[in-house]
Design brief:
single chain, about 350 residues, alpha+beta, Nucleotidyltransferase, domain 5, eight-stranded mixed sheet, about 40% helix, globular
Length: about 350
């Protein structure tokens, strides 16, 4: 049984093909810089890796390229000959607590949730619709980043706002990176030769976008991202936790529009706002005051979240690091773990 997993992003599509039930990865194809002057295609197999550049203008062309490469590399004839296709969808709100087979009602709900994740759900939906056209008889499944966090108790996911804003507009913490937190929880449990349901963990997904999750007996009980992926840790270009009155002040005193304030918080803050660079690898190469300050702010915020989650859990069996920074930066891991 062969299954393709699709992660359709704003300017990239990632696809992995697995042989089930062994979970053997047969191929990994990434198309980056879609719509730019030159797109980058990377193909990875056990004994073969290559990259190539060509102009790929749309997501439709990107999926066509992936479809053709799977055939050329003798992985599978085409998408239509797969047994199933699974799609990452960022926001499922309260509607989706687990993976679901996609039908018209599911598509409509994903579309209705676009305002909660405008940078993600729209392109996730586009990837699904293109896949349906290329493989109309293949089961399409949606897997939601928010689903893993639906086990959070009400005291964790509610904000101290008028309750009718939750009832009428579903303003609450949803949490993100759920597929990552769930996966590394299971992998850590395997490494520890334990059942995840017996373990308390703090999982740290640290990359350009970052979040931390408190896991009790295999279930998410709190996480740092909130109503949107802006809340929580300092990230590449996102500010994370701030006094919400700062936004009101910027609008009232400087005259920023809603969109301008949104851009500052999401696109021009975080590490980028402090030192002018959002890639931790590049920041670590520098030796200037603002770069050192940015990294100190980053690790301090992470440490504070770890401490608060240790207090919530009472007993912590493992800290689990993943994503680009979490996996590759041993120096930042050491700084985060100092005094813990």
């Amino acid at each position: 049984m062969k299954i393709a997993v699709i992660n359709s992003g704003s300017s990239s599509i990632k696809c992995k093909v697995f042989l089930m039930p062994s979970e053997e990865m047969l191929a990994h194809i990434v198309v980056e810089k879609i719509g730019e002057e030159s797109s980058l295609i990377t193909f990875v197999q056990k004994e073969k890796t290559f990259t190539q550049k060509e102009v790929i203008a749309t997501h439709h062309e990107a999926l066509k390229k992936i479809n053709n490469m799977l055939n050329e590399q003798d992985i599978v004839a085409n998408f239509a000959s797969l047994d199933a296709m699974a799609h990452r969808v960022v926001h499922g709100a309260e509607h989706f607590k687990k993976a679901v087979v996609i039908n018209d009602a599911v598509l409509q709900m994903i579309e209705e949730l676009i305002p909660l994740a405008p940078l993600h759900n729209e392109v996730n939906l586009e990837g699904i619709r293109i896949s349906q056209k290329k493989a109309p008889n293949v089961a399409q499944v949606a897997v939601f980043d928010t689903a893993f966090h639906e086990t959070m108790p009400k005291e964790a996911y509610l904000y101290a706002l008028p309750y009718e804003l939750y009832e009428g507009h579903k303003i609450r913490k949803y949490g993100f990176h759920g597929t990552s937190h769930a996966f590394v929880m299971r992998e850590a449990a395997k490494a520890m030769q334990k059942d995840a349901k017996e373990l308390n963990m703090i999982t740290l997904h640290l990359g350009n976008g970052s979040s931390i999750c408190a896991i009790e007996n295999g279930k998410s009980i709190d996480t740092s991202m909130g109503f949107t992926p802006l809340e929580g840790l300092i990230m590449g270009s996102r500010c994370g936790d701030i006094d919400p009155a700062v936004v009101l002040y910027l609008q009232r005193e400087i005259g920023l529009s809603v969109d301008e304030a949104d851009d500052i918080l999401n696109k021009y803050s975080g590490l980028l706002g402090i030192c002018g660079q959002k890639d931790v690898r590049e920041i670590q190469k520098r030796d200037d005051e603002l770069s050192r300050l940015a990294l100190s702010m980053l690790t301090r915020r992470i440490k504070k979240y770890i401490g608060s989650y240790m207090a919530l859990l009472g007993r912590v069996d493992a800290l689990v690091f993943t994503a680009g920074i979490g996996e590759h930066s041993s120096s930042l891991r050491a700084e985060i773990l100092q005094n813990l």
